[in-house]
Design goal:
Blueprint lengths: L5 H21 L3 E9 L10 E4 L5 E3 L5 E7 L2 E8 L6 E8 L4 E3 L2 E3 L25
Parallel strand pairs: 1-7, 1-8
Antiparallel strand pairs: 1-4, 2-3, 2-5, 5-6
Length: about 130
């Protein structure tokens, strides 16, 4: 390099020192993404919770039923999708590799939510407003 430009040498060294570690860090994870639809109609489902079991990572689907889970450490995972009114689905053996997007779609089936019967009894007013002064 030219010794007349010491600031250029310093700048290039600093650029390598800063850029190299960050490039190594960003290249160590993968991604899972896909679409979640209704099994009967094929319509996309917004607001579905998608969770990597055994981790604190997950995502929710957007209005078009698509989701993405970023910065996933490479390995094998179980991924579950759940939403009120639909049966939860878990897919096992999902492989995530470095710098790769793993496609994973779900089709959720509707389920009946059973609840207890609620009885409401009406009571009389304690003070009748039309009869008191």
């Amino acid at each position: 390099m030219n010794t007349k430009l010491p600031w250029l040498q310093y700048f290039l060294k600093m650029l390598v020192i800063v850029a190299l570690p960050s490039a190594l860090v960003f290249g160590q994870t993968g991604k899972i993404s896909g679409t979640i639809t209704d099994a009967e109609s094929g319509e996309p489902l917004p607001g579905v919770n998608v969770i990597l079991e055994g981790t604190e990572q997950g995502a929710a689907t957007g209005p078009n039923g698509q989701y993405s889970i970023l910065n996933v450490t490479p390995g094998t995972y179980s991924v579950s999708a759940s939403m009120i009114g639909y049966q939860a689905v878990t897919k096992t053996g999902v492989e995530v590799t470095i710098n790769h997007t793993t496609p994973l779609d779900f089709a959720l089936e509707t389920s009946v939510i059973e609840g207890e019967a609620v009885t409401v009894e009406a009571e009389r007013e304690i003070i009748k407003m039309d009869m008191s002064a």
